[in-house]
């Protein structure tokens, strides 16, 4: 029988997260599975507790292709990191929220033991989330950078004192040009993140769409847009405008953009896979995250 390799991702800076990681690892071992840690995480966790020292490292003893699933102890930022680590192998990610209510985490810490048992029993479903493919071309049309995003790709001005001048293109056709502080291109998953803060719409995860939101635009027509999932969105920095910019994807990967650069964003052919233990209404997640007032509701119990 082949060994089952489960990636465990946890920060070493919080004592409760370290203790939770040990509980998860012990449960996996008791069930005959092999826990795996990212190399950097293992060194940090071993410094906090020597019991982590003998656990296999991802990329050294175990390859990403051998992973069955990733268990993440943390918030949405840690889950985004996990999605990055398993991007090439497609292993699903199960998030266990250790702090504030997150949109990507499946359960809270109180249900952690039951969650691990269900992982061992393979009693979970996999939900695929739309991701973005991001490509940067220089003024000559050559591809100089490629990456991806689960939440959003943002083009932001690099200097505080100067805005950038952009042309927005949808499916190969120019839509408008204006000065702004930047642009956000968001997935439904990221619609409650930067997109939401920038005034973009909340998009239910079951809706396949892409949001395009200007940041502090100086224009009469610069409202948020929602386009189809197969739409190609391009953001071009006008040459001669003098403003340089930077591309950020999920707040984790960045690339400097000189005037004349062109950022093309479209749906990735490879979605991000999330492990789900039970169906959870997105409405309930919104109410909990934003503490929305629902007192007085007279609907069905």
What does this structure look like?
The protein is built from six helices and 20 strands. The mean pLDDT is 92. It has 301 residues and is of the alpha+beta class. The protein has two domains: 5-129 and 272-290, Probable inorganic polyphosphate/atp-NAD kinase, domain 1 (Rossmann fold, 3-Layer(aba) Sandwich); 132-267, Tumour Suppressor Smad4, CATH 2.60.200. It starts with a strand and ends in an 11-residue tail after the last helix. Helix 1 runs parallel beside helix 4. It is 19% helix and 36% strand. The protein has a six-stranded parallel sheet with strand order 3-2-1-4-5-6, sandwiched between helices. The longest helix has 16 residues, at 15-30.
Range of helix content: 10-25%
Number of strands: 20
CATH class of the largest domain, named Alpha Beta
Give the CATH superfamily of the largest domain.
Answer: Probable inorganic polyphosphate/atp-NAD kinase, domain 1
User: Helix and strand string, N-terminal first?
Assistant: EHEHEEHEEHEEEEEEEHEEEEEEEH
Indicate the structural class.
alpha+beta
Ends: how far apart?
47 Å
Q: Radius of gyration, rounded?
A: 21 Å
Based on the coordinates given, report the CATH architecture of the largest domain: 3-Layer(aba) Sandwich
State the CATH topology of the largest domain: Rossmann fold
Q: What is the overall shape?
A: globular
Main sheet: strand order: 3-2-1-4-5-6
Beta content: 35-45%
Mean pLDDT: 92
Biggest sheet features: 6 strands, parallel
| Count of domains | 2
* Poorly predicted runs: none
Number of helices, where a helix is a run of at least 4 consecutive DSSP H or I residues:
6
């Amino acid at each position: 029988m082949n060994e089952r390799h489960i990636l465990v991702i946890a920060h070493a800076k919080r004592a409760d997260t370290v203790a939770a990681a040990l509980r998860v690892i012990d449960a996996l071992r008791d069930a005959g599975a092999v826990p795996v840690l990212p190399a950097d995480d293992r060194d940090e966790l071993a410094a906090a507790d020597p019991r982590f020292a003998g656990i296999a490292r991802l990329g050294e003893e175990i390859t990403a292709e051998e992973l069955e699933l990733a268990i993440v102890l943390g918030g949405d930022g840690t889950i985004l990191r996990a999605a990055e680590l398993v991007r090439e192998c497609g292993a699903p990610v199960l998030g266990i929220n250790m702090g504030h209510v997150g949109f990507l985490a499946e359960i809270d810490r109180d249900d952690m033991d039951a969650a691990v048992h269900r992982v061992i029993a393979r009693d979970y479903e996999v939900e695929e989330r739309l991701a973005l493919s991001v490509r940067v071309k220089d003024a000559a049309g050559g591809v100089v950078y490629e990456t991806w995003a689960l939440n959003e790709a943002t083009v932001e001005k690099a200097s505080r004192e100067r805005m950038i001048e952009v042309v927005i293109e949808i499916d190969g056709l120019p839509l408008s040009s204006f000065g702004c502080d930047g642009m956000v291109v968001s997935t439904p998953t990221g619609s409650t993140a930067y997109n939401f803060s920038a005034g973009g719409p909340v998009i239910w995860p079951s809706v396949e769409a892409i949001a395009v939101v200007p940041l502090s635009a100086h224009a009469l027509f610069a409202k948020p847009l929602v386009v189809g999932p197969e739409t190609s969105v391009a953001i071009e920095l006008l040459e001669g405008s003098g403003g340089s910019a930077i591309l950020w994807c999920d707040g984790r990967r960045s690339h400097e953009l000189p005037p004349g650069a062109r950022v093309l964003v479209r749906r990735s052919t490879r979605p991000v896979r999330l492990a789900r233990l039970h169906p959870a209404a997105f409405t309930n997640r919104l109410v909990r995250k934003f503490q929305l007032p629902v007192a007085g509701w007279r609907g069905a119990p």
